[in-house]
Amino acid sequence: MKLLMVDVDGVLVYGRPSDGLPLFTYLERDLGLRLDVLQQAFFKTCCVDIVTGRDALEPKLAEVLGRIAPHLSARTLIDYWFENDSRLDHDLLEDLAALRAGGTRMFLATNQEHMRAAYLMGELGLSSRFDGIFYSAALGYQKPAAEFFRLATERVGISASEIGFIDDVEANIKATRHFGWKAMQWTAGSTLQDAITAFSA
């Protein structure tokens, strides 16, 4: 394996920094908006276009909030969202850093829109820990679409068989294996060594 692709949510990042709870656990208490209302009006209807780069997060969210929570600005909700979904797995990051120091190239491979991708690389400092990021809004396709993996493979310039991948979603693992990447599904208690062993099997 010359290169490792690493998913973000559910692998590197999970929940609120203070306690690891889901990011919107206290949304209604903190911002006066019910989660089920937000999910129905925004996440279930708008997210695919935003995550694949066909629509922009802030203006679309502002439009939705104008209907369901006019007291709340899109920027306020975005800041709350990103800050409460930023708990990093530092043990995994240390293991990844050691692997990278040994010569393995390392990229993020994630379904994200543009603003959060920038937040991950900038505010969370992942740009210093990875050689780059492949994300759905920039590629125009989201995992598990084969085009996501094809474009990422083309851009790193090596054969699919030389790429390892860790992700928590089974459909993404199946798709990458079909494409030719070596892949392991990340679950609670997984370690980087587990993945390296699986890639070598």
Automatic annotation (TrEMBL):
The protein's name: HAD family phosphatase
